[in-house]
Specification:
about 110 residues; alpha+beta; Gyrase A, domain 2; four-stranded antiparallel β-sheet; 4 strands
Length: about 110
């Protein structure tokens, strides 16, 4: 599974929810900081930053990435932190799109620290 080279499918294409086996396998591909909600419908990750400017740099880069993918996270942020959560609202749970975007965010954070 190489999510790095994949792009999100349009939600209108009837994306199916992932099975428990899929979730287990997909979680291995993304950063260990991502966690699945207790109900299995959302993946989230917390990020820490040195200051507000670095937080906003990340938020803006994340917004650009989400627009490119056509799949948008829920985000909560403050002075030196951000919490990013993915779910496919239309499917009412987790789909392949959520993991494609999570992997892209992982790569975004690695690139921003280089």
């Amino acid at each position: 599974m190489n999510f790095s080279e994949q792009h999100c499918d349009p939600c209108q294409s009837g994306l199916g929810l992932l099975t428990q086996d899929d979730l287990y396998e997909y979680m291995k591909v993304i950063n260990a900081g991502w966690q699945i909600s207790d109900d299995g419908l959302i993946i989230s990750r917390n990020f820490g930053f040195k200051n507000f400017a670095k937080t906003m740099f990340f938020i803006n880069a994340l917004a650009n990435l989400a627009d490119q993918q056509g799949h948008h996270p829920d985000v909560c942020f403050g002075y030196n932190y951000a919490r990013v959560s993915f779910t496919t609202h239309e499917a009412k749970g987790l789909t392949r799109n959520d993991f494609i975007c999570a992997k892209a965010v992982d790569e975004l954070t690695v690139a921003s620290r280089a």
